[in-house]
Amino acid sequence: MLARVPEHAVHVTDVRRFETDGIVAADFEIVWLDSRGALRTGPARIWIPERALEPEASLPLRYQAGYEAVDEQAVPVAAEGYVVVATGPAPAGADPLAWHPIPRGPNLDFALLHLARALPFVDLSRVLIAGGSAGAYMALLLAAESFPVAAVLADLPPVNLGYQINYMAHNREIATSAWRESVPGLPGLASVLPLEAPTRAQYGPDTSDRVWFEHSPISLTHLITAPVSIVASTADMLVPLPQISKEHAIPPPPASMPEGFSADPTVVGSAPSVRLSLAEVLAPQSARFDVVVVPATTSRLEVDPEHPEVLPRSSPIPIPWPDVQWAVTVLDEGPPEPAVVHVKYAVQFDRSSEALARLLDDPGIHQLTGPKLQQQLARLAGREWLSPGCHHLQTAATERADVCRGFAAYLGNEEARQRFMGLYGEVEPELKARSGLPSPAEAALAYFIGGGRS
Question: Which domains does the chain have, with CATH numbers?
């Protein structure tokens, strides 16, 4: 099935069957272009419901962004009817720090999502992109690149790279120094500090440089046109809440933290771009921030050093999904504490299955905007849209095929076609020409409906 996508080169390395669930899984390698334009091979994984083998099968896709996924996570999702795709483990010999989603950059995920969307049994109008932590950061970048996208689930995402790295740098000494009976000052934060160096190697030493901002989701909100559900925590020590919303952040009492600790954007950074939060860039009418207080009966997320495999039972926390594009849920767990990683309590984010089903059934024609259309045409023209000067486009053939497939899926009804025609008429003739499209809107419409054939 993977070989049925001609513009992608793949090599299957392992196949597994889960007879009880009716799932076939495969590990494979995909060819992609890295941030320097070099050709590389990357590991990937897919889980496919057996019904994908039926004639005319058309299944929703869940792309798990950034991190690798394993059978225990993916098989239950595939059993619900999704095709599940994710990157695989770091290749042999790869630096595990450089392979982390943020310093690795988005190119592997871009290429893999292109392949996933090209599978003949995937319904491009029902593509869900999900991720947690750095995977949530990647999910937002993928949503900025791809079109159309039914929904984005981003749990605990870094959204401002400059702020994130400055926060780590500001608290580095504190995090790794002994505090109170020879305990590391901030053990949770200390665990991710090694990521600072490879991230600076990828984007440069100066976090105020435009490259850092341009690789931050807060600079891409005009290109993220799908419905987004974000969950953030007031207690998060790895991805502090001020980069999502300064208003909802709860400063820790001074005596509860080592002296000098700060997550305040005005303390950890001086550049305006580093101090910017998601709440400050979203249009008020497009976003809603809901605060959900963790019930007092919820267990603390504490690990017994003698039995680290035994975790407290997670409590489901209902996550609201109002009818706005940006639904941001702030989990009120109280202020940050030194030993916290992402969350203070053992919680499981429980989104409404009804809301998700509604979005998958009707992604909405308003995802196509003027900026989104121009970005997709820039991909056809071979013009870098994400931080010009950096290399993120994949091969011309895969970029064109992905854009054309997306438009063919979007233009399935008359209302969407009329919207496309109106927006296409506003595109500069030079961009139309460079993208290889005819100038009249009717001819461009026919080209995309035909799957990229004149």
Answer: 2-365 (3.40.50), 371-449 (no CATH)
**Stated pTM of the model:** 0.94
The answer to whether residues 13 and 6 touch, using CB atoms and an 8 Å cutoff, is: no
Contacts of 49 (CB under 8 A, 6+ apart): 22, 23, 59, 78, 79, 81, 82, 83
At 161, which amino acid appears?
L
pLDDT tens digits for 221-246?
A: 999 999 999 999 999 999 999 999 99
d(CA 348, CA 184): 28
- Measured between alpha carbons, how far is 432 from 401 in angstroms, rounded to an integer? 17
CA angle in degrees (0–180, nearest 5) for 271-336-159: 40
Q: What's the CA dihedral at 24, 27, 30, 34 to 10 degrees? A: 130
The rounded distance, in Å, linking the Cα atoms of 277 and 266 is 12
Sign, Cα dihedral of 330, 142, 452, 419:
positive
* Residue found by looking up tokens 């932590």 in the block: 133
Q: In this predicted model, what pLDDT tens digit does every residue of 370-423 receive, in sequence order?
A: 999 999 999 999 999 998 889 999 999 999 999 999 999 999 999 999 999 999
Q: Which residues contact 58 (CB under 8 A, 6 or more apart)?
A: 121, 122, 123
